Amino acid sequence: MSIAITNTLLEKTRSLSIEETLTFLADEFKGKVVFSTSFGQEDQVITALIGKNNLPITIFTLDTGRLFQETYDVFHKTLKKYQIDIKTYFPETSAVEELLNQKGPNSFYESVENRKECCFIRKVAPLTKALKGNSIWITGLRAEQSENRNDLDLFEYDEKFDIIKFNPLLKWTLEEVQKYLDDNNVPQNALHKQGFVSIGCAPCTRAIVPGEDIRAGRWWWESSHKECGLHQK
Predict the structure, then answer these.
(1) N vs C: which end of the chain shows fewer Cβ within 10 Å?
(2) Where would I find the Phosphoadenosine phosphosulphate reductase domain in this sequence (predicted)?
Protein backbone atom coordinates (compact mmCIF):
# COMPACT_ATOMS: atom_id res chain seq x y z
CA MET A 1 0.00 0.00 0.00
CA SER A 2 2.80 2.46 0.91
CA ILE A 3 4.55 1.77 -2.40
CA ALA A 4 1.31 2.54 -4.24
CA ILE A 5 0.92 5.80 -2.30
CA THR A 6 4.50 6.74 -3.17
CA ASN A 7 3.84 6.18 -6.89
CA THR A 8 0.63 8.20 -6.66
CA LEU A 9 2.46 11.10 -5.00
CA LEU A 10 5.14 11.05 -7.68
CA GLU A 11 2.45 11.30 -10.34
CA LYS A 12 0.38 14.00 -8.61
CA THR A 13 3.35 16.26 -7.94
CA ARG A 14 5.27 15.72 -11.16
CA SER A 15 4.50 19.19 -12.52
CA LEU A 16 4.57 21.04 -9.18
CA SER A 17 7.31 23.22 -7.76
CA ILE A 18 8.85 22.38 -4.39
CA GLU A 19 6.71 24.99 -2.66
CA GLU A 20 3.57 23.72 -4.40
CA THR A 21 4.45 20.14 -3.43
CA LEU A 22 4.98 21.09 0.21
CA THR A 23 1.62 22.87 0.21
CA PHE A 24 -0.05 19.86 -1.41
CA LEU A 25 1.42 17.45 1.15
CA ALA A 26 0.45 19.65 4.09
CA ASP A 27 -3.14 19.70 2.80
CA GLU A 28 -3.30 16.03 1.79
CA PHE A 29 -1.83 14.70 5.06
CA LYS A 30 -3.04 17.30 7.55
CA GLY A 31 -1.11 17.26 10.81
CA LYS A 32 1.04 14.32 9.71
CA VAL A 33 3.83 15.97 7.72
CA VAL A 34 7.12 16.53 9.52
CA PHE A 35 10.49 17.93 8.53
CA SER A 36 13.70 16.97 10.30
CA THR A 37 16.40 19.63 10.39
CA SER A 38 19.99 19.56 11.57
CA PHE A 39 20.42 23.19 10.43
CA GLY A 40 22.73 22.29 7.55
CA GLN A 41 22.56 24.20 4.28
CA GLU A 42 19.99 21.94 2.63
CA ASP A 43 17.80 21.92 5.71
CA GLN A 44 17.92 25.70 5.91
CA VAL A 45 16.57 25.94 2.35
CA ILE A 46 13.58 23.79 3.28
CA THR A 47 13.03 25.62 6.56
CA ALA A 48 12.96 28.91 4.64
CA LEU A 49 10.38 27.52 2.21
CA ILE A 50 8.18 26.31 5.06
CA GLY A 51 8.65 29.44 7.14
CA LYS A 52 8.08 32.13 4.54
CA ASN A 53 4.97 30.33 3.25
CA ASN A 54 3.66 29.67 6.76
CA LEU A 55 3.02 26.02 5.94
CA PRO A 56 1.44 23.78 8.60
CA ILE A 57 4.39 21.39 8.65
CA THR A 58 5.98 20.36 11.94
CA ILE A 59 9.71 21.08 12.06
CA PHE A 60 11.82 19.13 14.52
CA THR A 61 15.48 18.62 15.34
CA LEU A 62 17.52 16.04 17.22
CA ASP A 63 19.76 17.46 19.93
CA THR A 64 22.35 14.76 20.52
CA GLY A 65 23.94 16.63 23.40
CA ARG A 66 27.21 16.99 21.48
CA LEU A 67 26.44 19.66 18.88
CA PHE A 68 28.63 22.62 17.95
CA GLN A 69 27.79 25.97 19.52
CA GLU A 70 27.58 27.31 15.94
CA THR A 71 24.70 24.89 15.33
CA TYR A 72 22.80 26.31 18.31
CA ASP A 73 23.53 29.81 17.01
CA VAL A 74 21.91 29.15 13.62
CA PHE A 75 19.05 27.34 15.40
CA HIS A 76 18.35 30.52 17.39
CA LYS A 77 18.68 32.83 14.38
CA THR A 78 16.27 30.65 12.40
CA LEU A 79 13.64 30.80 15.13
CA LYS A 80 13.88 34.59 15.23
CA LYS A 81 13.87 35.15 11.46
CA TYR A 82 10.91 32.96 10.57
CA GLN A 83 8.96 33.14 13.85
CA ILE A 84 8.41 29.40 13.79
CA ASP A 85 8.43 26.56 16.29
CA ILE A 86 11.09 23.85 16.07
CA LYS A 87 10.44 20.88 18.31
CA THR A 88 13.54 19.37 19.93
CA TYR A 89 14.03 15.69 20.72
CA PHE A 90 16.75 14.50 23.08
CA PRO A 91 18.17 11.01 23.64
CA GLU A 92 16.94 9.10 26.67
CA THR A 93 18.99 10.19 29.68
CA SER A 94 19.28 6.65 31.08
CA ALA A 95 20.66 5.31 27.77
CA VAL A 96 23.31 8.04 27.55
CA GLU A 97 24.27 7.56 31.20
CA GLU A 98 24.63 3.81 30.72
CA LEU A 99 26.75 4.26 27.60
CA LEU A 100 29.14 6.68 29.30
CA ASN A 101 29.29 4.68 32.52
CA GLN A 102 30.17 1.51 30.63
CA LYS A 103 32.37 2.80 27.80
CA GLY A 104 33.31 6.40 28.58
CA PRO A 105 32.62 9.58 26.58
CA ASN A 106 34.65 8.74 23.45
CA SER A 107 33.89 5.08 22.77
CA PHE A 108 32.77 5.93 19.22
CA TYR A 109 36.40 6.42 18.18
CA GLU A 110 37.24 2.81 19.05
CA SER A 111 35.14 0.92 16.49
CA VAL A 112 32.41 1.31 13.89
CA GLU A 113 30.13 -0.75 16.13
CA ASN A 114 30.67 1.61 19.05
CA ARG A 115 30.10 4.63 16.83
CA LYS A 116 26.84 3.21 15.51
CA GLU A 117 25.77 2.43 19.06
CA CYS A 118 26.28 6.07 20.00
CA CYS A 119 24.45 7.24 16.86
CA PHE A 120 21.55 4.93 17.66
CA ILE A 121 21.17 6.23 21.20
CA ARG A 122 21.61 9.90 20.34
CA LYS A 123 19.90 10.04 16.93
CA VAL A 124 18.03 6.97 15.71
CA ALA A 125 16.01 6.31 18.87
CA PRO A 126 14.89 9.97 19.20
CA LEU A 127 14.07 10.06 15.47
CA THR A 128 11.87 7.00 15.87
CA LYS A 129 9.92 8.87 18.52
CA ALA A 130 9.67 12.01 16.37
CA LEU A 131 8.36 10.16 13.30
CA LYS A 132 5.83 8.00 15.12
CA GLY A 133 2.26 8.54 13.96
CA ASN A 134 3.22 10.68 10.97
CA SER A 135 2.75 9.99 7.26
CA ILE A 136 5.32 12.14 5.43
CA TRP A 137 8.93 12.77 6.45
CA ILE A 138 10.63 15.64 4.60
CA THR A 139 14.43 15.49 4.42
CA GLY A 140 17.26 17.59 3.03
CA LEU A 141 18.98 14.68 1.28
CA ARG A 142 20.74 15.32 -2.03
CA ALA A 143 21.93 12.64 -4.44
CA GLU A 144 25.45 14.08 -4.78
CA GLN A 145 26.07 14.01 -1.01
CA SER A 146 27.30 10.40 -1.11
CA GLU A 147 27.26 7.21 -3.19
CA ASN A 148 24.65 5.79 -0.81
CA ARG A 149 22.20 8.50 -1.88
CA ASN A 150 22.60 8.30 -5.66
CA ASP A 151 19.70 5.90 -6.08
CA LEU A 152 17.17 7.77 -3.93
CA ASP A 153 13.80 8.82 -5.34
CA LEU A 154 11.89 12.06 -4.82
CA PHE A 155 9.33 10.04 -2.85
CA GLU A 156 10.17 6.70 -1.32
CA TYR A 157 8.82 4.40 1.34
CA ASP A 158 11.13 4.04 4.32
CA GLU A 159 10.42 0.57 5.65
CA LYS A 160 12.61 1.02 8.71
CA PHE A 161 10.46 3.87 10.04
CA ASP A 162 7.26 2.90 8.19
CA ILE A 163 6.86 6.33 6.62
CA ILE A 164 6.96 7.97 3.19
CA LYS A 165 10.04 10.12 2.74
CA PHE A 166 10.05 13.23 0.55
CA ASN A 167 13.45 14.46 -0.65
CA PRO A 168 12.68 17.82 -2.33
CA LEU A 169 16.31 18.85 -2.95
CA LEU A 170 17.34 15.47 -4.31
CA LYS A 171 18.62 16.78 -7.66
CA TRP A 172 19.96 20.11 -6.42
CA THR A 173 23.68 20.79 -6.55
CA LEU A 174 25.56 22.33 -3.63
CA GLU A 175 26.00 25.46 -5.73
CA GLU A 176 22.21 25.76 -6.16
CA VAL A 177 21.73 25.33 -2.42
CA GLN A 178 24.29 28.02 -1.63
CA LYS A 179 22.78 30.41 -4.18
CA TYR A 180 19.30 30.04 -2.68
CA LEU A 181 20.63 30.69 0.82
CA ASP A 182 22.58 33.77 -0.26
CA ASP A 183 19.81 35.19 -2.45
CA ASN A 184 17.23 34.83 0.32
CA ASN A 185 19.44 35.85 3.25
CA VAL A 186 18.81 32.55 5.04
CA PRO A 187 20.70 32.01 8.34
CA GLN A 188 23.66 29.67 7.88
CA ASN A 189 26.02 27.84 10.17
CA ALA A 190 29.23 29.87 10.53
CA LEU A 191 31.24 26.64 10.23
CA HIS A 192 30.40 26.38 6.52
CA LYS A 193 32.85 29.20 5.82
CA GLN A 194 35.55 27.24 7.67
CA GLY A 195 35.40 24.18 5.39
CA PHE A 196 32.64 22.28 7.18
CA VAL A 197 30.14 21.03 4.60
CA SER A 198 28.29 18.23 6.38
CA ILE A 199 27.95 19.12 10.07
CA GLY A 200 26.96 16.67 12.79
CA CYS A 201 28.19 16.17 16.35
CA ALA A 202 31.30 18.15 17.27
CA PRO A 203 33.56 15.15 18.10
CA CYS A 204 32.59 13.43 14.84
CA THR A 205 32.92 16.29 12.35
CA ARG A 206 35.91 18.05 10.82
CA ALA A 207 36.44 20.49 7.97
CA ILE A 208 37.31 19.10 4.54
CA VAL A 209 39.96 20.29 2.12
CA PRO A 210 39.41 21.07 -1.58
CA GLY A 211 38.96 17.88 -3.58
CA GLU A 212 37.71 15.78 -0.67
CA ASP A 213 34.31 14.09 -0.77
CA ILE A 214 31.46 16.04 0.84
CA ARG A 215 31.07 13.40 3.55
CA ALA A 216 34.80 13.06 4.26
CA GLY A 217 34.50 15.24 7.34
CA ARG A 218 31.95 12.98 9.01
CA TRP A 219 33.38 10.13 11.16
CA TRP A 220 36.66 11.01 9.50
CA TRP A 221 38.66 8.32 11.32
CA GLU A 222 36.78 5.39 9.75
CA SER A 223 36.23 4.07 6.22
CA SER A 224 32.58 3.00 6.58
CA HIS A 225 29.71 4.17 4.38
CA LYS A 226 29.50 7.33 6.52
CA GLU A 227 25.86 6.92 7.58
CA CYS A 228 24.46 7.02 11.11
CA GLY A 229 21.32 4.97 10.54
CA LEU A 230 18.86 7.80 9.95
CA HIS A 231 18.77 7.38 6.18
CA GLN A 232 20.51 4.09 5.60
CA LYS A 233 18.51 1.68 3.43
Answers:
(1) N
(2) 33-207
